[in-house]
Amino acid sequence: MITLLVAAAVSLVFSLLLTPLFARTFRRMNLGQFIRADTPTTHVVKRGTPSMGGVVFIIAAVTGYFVGHLVGREPPSVPALLVILMMVGLGLIGFIDDFMKVHRQNSLGLSGPLKIVGTIIVSVIFSVLALNYHDSNGVSAASTAVSVVRDLPFLDFVAIFGAGVGVVLAIAWMALITTSVSNAVNLADGLDGLAAGASIFALGSYIIIGFWQNQQSCFAGGLDPDVASQCYEVASPLDLAVIAAAVVGAVIGFLWWNTSPAQIMMGDTGSFGLGGALAALAILSRTELLLILLGGLFVVITGQVIIQRMYFKATKGKRIWKASPLHHHFEMVGWPEVTIVVRFWLIAGLFVAGGVFLFYIEWLALLP
């Protein structure tokens, strides 16, 4: 527990104190936000706001995690390091995209296909390492089965298709999750503090989930025989909670400076990094489909963009909403930015509450 608390505290203080320094440095380097012509006119005032702020909380989270382990005198676990790998790897893709935009002073960063290819490469490396790592209890970091609250045995790719094809399909499944989640968080990053606040809720749920999975681990000593039937086979669940706490602390510190009017933007560096961390935590904690609820706000925003584009193409130029993503529609309707952000945070919180409730109810339902 001391490791978790120290990791969260150090990452929060690091991000809170150093974000203004990074913001001033980025401003001097002319690494400012570029505003697209098709965004609401109220965003014009944000032009030039330092971007790539995700660098700050990614560094803060990694620092907090390792300091927490140093103080707690516990070695880092491979599953948590895999979360860091995913977060840093996707953050690097976002950083390249952000740098190209601010260098060219237009919205032409990495092309969509290149971002997807980069995301797939990182996710494949992550998946191969996760599938091949086994802890001292013989549990692999990732599974070849689709999971909701735990693995679904009837949806195990290897059991259905055999070792060769099954492993390939499992890796493809994890790549799909990673690509979907990272892009969903990226779409939500359109208003000051929106993606950061919503991510705090979603990532925070994995502190609760990891702690509970550790308490009810199939390998925990003294586990009550009455509840042994619903124990969790997850590698290093408590350390997954530690890295989740480190990321949450870092983003909270960053959010202090990212709320309206934002002094720094997270950019694609931050949104892709957060999406990567969220996807990795879902995969490693065996809660992949539960992420639909835990990241419900991101699902809604992404779904609205998909529906809007499909309708636009089908009707040759007509729209259901005034704009997409959804938060820009409410801007066009006339809602103040702060009102939209706070209400979306509330929706994100309700989705997370529903997801954590479902996680716990599933455990209760299995009681003998």
From TrEMBL:
PANTHER family recorded: PHOSPHO-N-ACETYLMURAMOYL-PENTAPEPTIDE-TRANSFERASE, PHOSPHO-N-ACETYLMURAMOYL-PENTAPEPTIDE-TRANSFERASE HOMOLOG
First-listed, main subcellular location of the protein, grouped into a coarse class: membrane
Binding site for Mg(2+): 186, 268
Keyword RNA-binding: no
Keywords assigned: Cell cycle, Cell division, Cell membrane, Cell shape, Cell wall biogenesis/degradation, Magnesium, Membrane, Metal-binding, Peptidoglycan synthesis, Transferase, Transmembrane, Transmembrane helix
Transmembrane parts of this sequence: 52-71, 78-96, 116-133, 154-174, 194-212, 238-257, 263-284, 289-307, 340-361
GO cellular component terms attached to this protein's record: plasma membrane
Protein function: Catalyzes the initial step of the lipid cycle reactions in the biosynthesis of the cell wall peptidoglycan: transfers peptidoglycan precursor phospho-MurNAc-pentapeptide from UDP-MurNAc-pentapeptide onto the lipid carrier undecaprenyl phosphate, yielding undecaprenyl-pyrophosphoryl-MurNAc-pentapeptide, known as lipid I.
Enzyme class: transferase
InterPro entries noted in UniProt: Glycosyl_transferase_4, PNAcMuramoyl-5peptid_Trfase, PNAcMuramoyl-5peptid_Trfase_CS
Pathway entry: Cell wall biogenesis; peptidoglycan biosynthesis
Cofactor: Mg(2+)
Family listed: Belongs to the glycosyltransferase 4 family. MraY subfamily.
Keyword Hydrolase in annotation: no
Name this polypeptide is given: Phospho-N-acetylmuramoyl-pentapeptide-transferase
PROSITE patterns the record matches: MRAY_1, MRAY_2
Compartment(s): Cell membrane; Membrane
EC number: 2.7.8.13
Membrane topology: Multi-pass membrane protein
A molecular function (GO) term: phospho-N-acetylmuramoyl-pentapeptide-transferase activity
